[in-house]
């Protein structure tokens, strides 16, 4: 009897074992991506030595340290370049071929990239590492768009927040795996670092084997392909019940609503006066995503801890703390998001990161006079990750979804993702050069960037929590612009809201 009740409860709330199995299969690309992106941190010195030795074999002369640092920075940054390309084609693949096929393309690209990263040492070709890094970046751009969309479209409205949270947890947990496997006692040593880079073959290979047997997104089948029969069959599979009429009705209602609202194109987004402020916010916050100092901590922490005075082994162990912190605080951040305003959390996180960046710079300046400061450096680095998880990364995607109306959300997100990838590429390439030139003072740059961003958010970004787009837009657009340039369905919502408000006022007056 208890088993029957549990089954019925799962069917009602959507968390059936079939849905969770499909979601797990879809999200296998996420740990593959996150692991690969962060896996260069631990074996950085061995990869530099490999590049150095390879160039000597070819040219019979050793390159300068600056050249090696520049090449390694480029290697890390190329993932951002690939991600830009991936993000530009992600929606095209998802809309024309389907969410599932887009994920499989991402996974196949990732598998190819990881094999190149792993085999580059055997082939004595650091260029293979560069190509592999670009391909894994393409996987990042496609996978981080297609996989969450696929899983969310499979879920009931009440499940969407938790489904998105699981995606974030998959990402942060993958950082921990990459850092632990990067210990010298495991694969983070001179003999086995190439195996460390090849480990995501497991995630990508497993996904390529089992995802083809999963159903396509019902929303895609109905709204893009107009195939009610296949959409019904897919829903029956993931809901684990035959009666899915309510689910189909919800999709039809969504289809009718979206058909009354024309999609805002990329070009129109820049021309629309009402959407100009959300666009500027998306660009600034997107560029801030990596230049806030988080990329320096997540991707170069081993080198930073060594410069702070820790030995190689201790630096590896300290680095694993960054992944654990990232995972833990991400869980806490989701609860804070429901309690505090978006703007408040973003400012809190940004100001905290700016202050911590200044402390890191000061500890590096005075570390020779006070060796114990290296431990302060570790603690403050972990605090940067905590502030980032509470503010910039937690709020970024939520506030964007609330700043743009439904018709402009796709284009708005594309701009934001593109800016975030530009930020990733430029930061990862420039940061090693900054560190070699500015040394201990490098983190003062991040203090300045966070200070400027905090001021921008304070004066330019509106609070969006529990507000419709029309209500938010009134804080910067006049009534005439709202009337002329607001999408049709949004005008209807605005009119309904105003009518309701007037009715309430009249009732009170009576």
UniProtKB/TrEMBL annotation:
UniProt GO cellular component terms: membrane
Top-rank lineage group of the source organism: Eukaryota
Keywords: Membrane, Transmembrane, Transmembrane helix, Transport
Domain Major facilitator superfamily (MFS) profile positions: 27-465
Membrane-spanning parts: 15-37, 71-94, 101-119, 131-151, 163-181, 193-214, 279-300, 320-338, 345-366, 378-400, 412-435, 441-461
Chief localisation class: membrane
InterPro entries: GLUT, MFS_dom, MFS_sugar_transport-like, MFS_trans_sf, Sugar/inositol_transpt, Sugar_transporter_CS
Membrane-topology annotation of the record: Multi-pass membrane protein
Full protein name: Major facilitator superfamily (MFS) profile domain-containing protein
Family: Belongs to the major facilitator superfamily. Sugar transporter (TC 2.A.1.1) family.
Lineage: Eukaryota, Metazoa, Spiralia, Lophotrochozoa, Mollusca
Molecular function as annotated in GO: hexose transmembrane transporter activity
Localisation per UniProt entry: Membrane
């Amino acid at each position: 009897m208890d088993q029957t009740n549990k089954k019925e409860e799962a069917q009602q709330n959507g968390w059936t074992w079939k849905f969770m199995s499909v979601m797990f299969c879809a999200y296998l690309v996420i740990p593959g991506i996150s692991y690969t992106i962060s896996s260069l941190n631990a074996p950085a010195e061995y990869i530099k030595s490999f590049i150095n030795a390879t160039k000597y074999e070819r040219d019979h002369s050793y390159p300068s340290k600056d050249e090696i640092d520049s090449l390694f920075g480029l290697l890390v940054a190329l993932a951002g370049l690939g991600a830009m390309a991936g993000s530009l084609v992600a929606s095209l693949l998802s809309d024309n071929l389907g969410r599932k096929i887009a994920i499989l393309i991402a996974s196949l690209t990732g598998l190819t990239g990881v094999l190149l990263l792993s085999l580059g040492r055997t082939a004595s070709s650091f260029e293979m590492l560069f190509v592999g890094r670009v391909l894994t970046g393409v996987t990042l751009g496609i996978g981080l768009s297609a996989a969450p969309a696929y899983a969310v479209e499979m879920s009931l409205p009440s499940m969407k927040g938790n489904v998105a949270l699981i995606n974030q947890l998959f990402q942060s947990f993958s950082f921990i795996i990459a850092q632990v496997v990067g210990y010298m006692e495991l694969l983070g040593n001179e003999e086995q670092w190439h195996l460390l880079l090849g480990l995501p073959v497991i995630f990508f290979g497993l996904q390529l084997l089992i995802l083809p047997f999963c159903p396509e997104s019902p929303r895609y089948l109905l709204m893009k392909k107009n195939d009610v029969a296949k959409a019904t069959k897919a829903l029956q599979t993931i809901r684990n019940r035959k009666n899915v009429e309510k689910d189909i009705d919800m999709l039809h209602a969504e289809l009718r609503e979206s058909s009354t609202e024309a999609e805002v194109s990329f070009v129109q987004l820049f021309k629309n006066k009402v959407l100009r402020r959300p666009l500027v916010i998306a660009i600034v916050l997107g560029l801030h995503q990596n230049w806030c100092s988080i990329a320096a901590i997540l991707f170069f922490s081993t080198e930073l801890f060594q410069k702070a005075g820790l030995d190689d082994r201790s630096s590896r162990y300290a680095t694993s703390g960054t992944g654990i912190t990232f995972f833990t605080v991400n869980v806490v951040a989701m609860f804070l998001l429901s309690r505090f305003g978006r703007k408040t959390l973003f400012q809190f996180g940004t100001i905290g990161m700016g202050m911590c960046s200044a402390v890191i710079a000061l500890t590096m300046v005075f570390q020779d006079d006070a060796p114990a400061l290296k431990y302060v450096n570790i603690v403050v680095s972990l605090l940067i990750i905590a502030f980032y998880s509470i503010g910039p990364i937690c709020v970024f995607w939520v506030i964007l979804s609330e700043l743009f109306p439904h018709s402009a959300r796709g284009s708005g997100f594309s701009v934001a993702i593109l800016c975030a990838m530009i930020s990733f590429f430029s930061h990862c390439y420039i940061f090693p050069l900054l560190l070699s030139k500015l040394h201990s003072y490098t983190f003062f740059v991040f203090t300045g960037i966070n200070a400027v961003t905090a001021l921008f958010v304070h004066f330019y970004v509106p609070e969006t929590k529990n507000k419709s787009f029309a209500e938010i837009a009134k804080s910067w657009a006049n009534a005439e612009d709202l009337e002329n340039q607001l999408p049709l369905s949004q005008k209807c919502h605005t009119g309904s809201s105003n009518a309701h408000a007037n009715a309430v006022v009249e009732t009170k007056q009576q």
